[in-house]
Amino acid sequence: MNAPYRITRRIEIDAGHRIMTHGSKCRHLHGHRYAIEAVCEAADLHHGGEQTDMVLDFGFLKDEMLTAIDGPCDHGFIAALADRELLTMFCPMGRDVDGWLAGLDAQVRAHGEATTTDTRLGTKLTVVPFQPTAECLARHWFTRLAEPVGRRSDGQARLVSVKVWETPNCTAEFSG
Ligand SMILES: Nc1nc2c(c(=O)[nH]1)N=C([C@H](O)[C@H](O)COP(=O)(O)OP(=O)(O)OP(=O)(O)O)CN2
């Protein structure tokens, strides 16, 4: 049964990506103003402290969404680790491409993603171990937000879903 209390917080970011296996236009490098909504639920509200009568302070949820989503991805390019040809374009001039890619690979394996400005133009790059479709981004951001939601609510709240708008007309949602 669903818990009776639900809260939702939305943030928006700008990021580039491409879907390398796409049959048409999404293979091209392009950008979106992504909107991301996180939904949290609780069986009861806090009964004391600074979150009294709340599921989870909207401000705390915003902070965690900025850390998990905006920090790594806003005004960056989100690329699949498997998209070697694209990543090669980001490799700094004069660097050994295989070595540079191996460094990204190690970070992705250790941390689930790699964010760097050690790139050819010094632009922000986030490498993820999946194709950056709206569905996979929703799952990825859910995974990164679930623990902070529990911690910041002192165990009171649970992350229910993350919904990603890739365009004003298209959304994907992941529920845990
Ligand atoms: N299920 C999914 N389908 C598509 C994804 C995705 O992440 N999941 N992504 C894309 C592209 O990245 C594309 O940018 C968005 O597709 P599309 O709806 O075709 O975009 P439009 O700009 O044409 O949207 P309009 O609302 O018509 O302007 C493709 N598919």
Automatic annotation (TrEMBL):
Single GO molecular-function term? 6-carboxytetrahydropterin synthase activity
Q: Which UniProt keywords apply?
A: Lyase, Metal-binding, Zinc
> Which Gene3D superfamilies does this entry report, sorted A to Z?
6-pyruvoyl tetrahydropterin synthase/QueD
Q: Name the domain of life this protein comes from.
A: Bacteria
InterPro entries for the chain: 6-PTP_synth/QueD, 6-PTP_synth/QueD_sf
Q: Which pathway does it serve?
A: Purine metabolism; 7-cyano-7-deazaguanine biosynthesis
Pfam families recorded: PTPS
The EC number of this protein is 4.1.2.50
* Cofactor or coenzyme needed: Zn(2+)
SUPFAM superfamilies in the record, alphabetically?
Answer: Tetrahydrobiopterin biosynthesis enzymes-like
| Catalysed conversion reaction | 7,8-dihydroneopterin 3'-triphosphate + H2O = 6-carboxy-5,6,7,8-tetrahydropterin + triphosphate + acetaldehyde + 2 H(+)
State the function annotated in the UniProt record. Answer: Catalyzes the conversion of 7,8-dihydroneopterin triphosphate (H2NTP) to 6-carboxy-5,6,7,8-tetrahydropterin (CPH4) and acetaldehyde.
Family assignment from sequence similarity: Belongs to the PTPS family. QueD subfamily.
Which protein is depicted? 6-carboxy-5,6,7,8-tetrahydropterin synthase
Give the source species: Magnetospirillum moscoviense
